Amino acid sequence: MATTLMRSGFIRNVLRRGGSGASPAPKRNFSSSSGHHDDAYETAKWEKITYLGIVSCTGLAVYILSKGHHHYDEPPAYPYLHIRNKEFPWGPDGLFEIKEEHH
């Protein structure tokens, strides 16, 4: 059998290719890559667009967050915030309500 393989040139081709008996797979081209666009150019373009987007979003966030906003001294007096249908066992106020005492 070895002599048959030797005569067909199979072993010589395997040794010449570096040990793999199978032929290399052909390169697949997808339908969207027609060869007109350079892949390195497209990659560089989108990398620049990404960095520009990061810088713009960061700048916009800094601008918006640095603007002052109005702080209310007291919360608006909505009548539905303090509805008590019955008194709590610990008194008229809720546990976490802070009652400011004026001296």
Automatic annotation (TrEMBL):
- Give the region (Disordered) as residue ranges: 16-38
Where is the major localization of this protein?
mitochondrion
Stated EC number for the protein is: 1.9.3.1
Q: What keywords are assigned to this protein?
A: Membrane, Mitochondrion, Mitochondrion inner membrane, Oxidoreductase, Transit peptide
Q: Name one GO biological process term.
A: mitochondrial electron transport, cytochrome c to oxygen
Domain of life from the UniProt record: Eukaryota
Task: Output the Pfam families linked to this UniProt entry.
Answer: COX6A
Q: Per UniProt, what is one GO molecular function of this protein?
A: enzyme regulator activity
Where is this protein localized, as stated in its record?
Mitochondrion inner membrane
Q: Which Gene3D superfamilies match?
A: Cytochrome c oxidase, subunit VIa (4.10.95.10)
Give the UniProt family note. Belongs to the cytochrome c oxidase subunit 6A family.
PANTHER family tied to this protein: CYTOCHROME C OXIDASE POLYPEPTIDE VIA, CYTOCHROME C OXIDASE SUBUNIT
The name this protein goes by in its record:
Cytochrome C oxidase
**Organism in which the protein naturally occurs:** Medicago truncatula
The gene is 11413411
